[in-house]
Amino acid sequence: MEKLLIANRGEIGRRIIRSARALGIRTVALYSEADAGLAHVEEADEAVAIGPAPARESYLDVDRVLDAARQTGADAVHPGYGFLSENADFAERVIAAGLTWVGPAPETIRAMGDKARARTLAEAAGVPVVPGSGRIPPGSVMDVEAEAARIGYPLLVKASAGGGGIGMRRVDGPAQLAATVAATQSMAGKAFGDGTVFLERFVPRARHIEIQVFGLGEAGAVHLRERDCSLQRRFQKVIEESPAPGLPEGVRQRMAEAALALCRHTAYRGAGTIEFIVDAVSFDFYFLEMNTRIQVEHPVTEMVTGRDLVAMQLRFAADTLGRVEQDAIRFSGHAIECRLYAESPERNFLPSPGTLTRFRPPPVGPDLRLDAAYREGETVTPFYDPMIAKLIAHGATREQACNRAIDALRQFEIDGIRTNRDFLIACLENPGFRAGDIYTGFIEDNRATLLHYA
Amino acid sequence: MPIVDVKTEITGNIWKIEAAPGDVLEEGDTIMVMESMKMEIPVSAPERGTLREVLFPEGATVTEGTVVARLEA
User: Fold this and answer.
1) Domain harbouring B47, CATH code
2) Of B10, B35, B61, the CB nearest to A350
3) What is the mean predicted confidence (pLDDT) over A69-86?
4) pLDDT at A242 over 90
5) Which helix (H) or strand (E) holds A286?
6) Count of domains in chain B?
7) Chain segment B43-60, per-residue pLDDT in tens
8) Active site residue A369
9) pTM here?
């Protein structure tokens, strides 16, 4: 691998350049009309303009990306996260063009991208999935009550054709079951043209905990422990940390073993993340999905392991990684990542693009890392995602990591756009958060307190 | 009949225009959908009225607070 094309932008573009450069690999950046002159463009050895600002006409345009690789003589492609990173057709085209694809096999990407197939694979590997029923079309003869008893209450009646919380009703006991199933079928028939529903166990207080894995194909896989990503708004992560506070050691081990079983079952290749829903009370855990790429929050894992996951990806793709032993992966202290978004928490987290008239991060060091997409004077445009930077703090304890993150956020001077900086500080100082009492509804439930915190 | 300015509350691109001049809109009806940072945000009628004009085409970039349509209440 001599020249790497990075099919991405922003902070992850810069992040990949750093690791590639350290390995002596030349880099090619891409940029849309909206991104000319940004840091990820200037820091690469070469850069290619690939089209207008809208992503579908630039970063998502497979032909243009492949043209850029051809034009620059790149011999490998790293997709980063988002954009084309989980597009199996793109991975196939990269490989067919004779280039090295920095990612898992296209068939694995395709299988994991299909929720139903991913669930089947997880079950086949012995990984627990959320207990659920088969399809219940209107007029079905299935014994719904027996199914519900097997799954357990509370449960959700979900429309097969629904999504994003639409067409979902909660049932707390057998008395309401039949009526709720009928009502959901009727509603789904009208709303989606398909009255089919299914039942699924409802986890009232859920945490989102994921295991970072690195698959070595037929040679097995290693894990790099968990990240707790329970703090979310609008289904997007806000704060992530490792280790997950209060997670019993036995559960941690069983989750890691389940993740490794799924990797072995699919002969997984490269960096991946297996996401679980964890019951915050019982610590029962269930497979949610597998992300077949580097994650936004990978620095949390890097801070506690001292490993460079992107360098591992590049070396594995280039066949120079060699063996990786589980016992050689050590964990030290606690790391916490805060995602700085161009948004307005007091206006329901509405995006807030604009020019960063002031952008002065605190000094970084061994215990404080900043992965930023922008520099002072640059404009955050409305075309891409609202994340402008990630601040990652490390400490011997969770307490210390939190305090370092708070200090750093307080020192961070940002002006010109609205950001969630103060909201992040409010989360980090919240007594519930500090006690480790985190779950996916935390931000919603504490919204008023977090917004009025000063 | 008073003319009401309809403003966008975010900076973004006009993704889809869903109402045409002459349409009678109820309060809350969507006039257009804006797209900003991978989010779709509707611009809706602040009160009941007849849509008089839409001031930008689909694809235009507008900044927060811009008047994007006018309504006759």
Assistant:
1) 2.40.50.100
2) B10
3) 97
4) yes
5) strand A285-291
6) 1
7) 999 999 999 999 999 999
8) no
9) 0.91
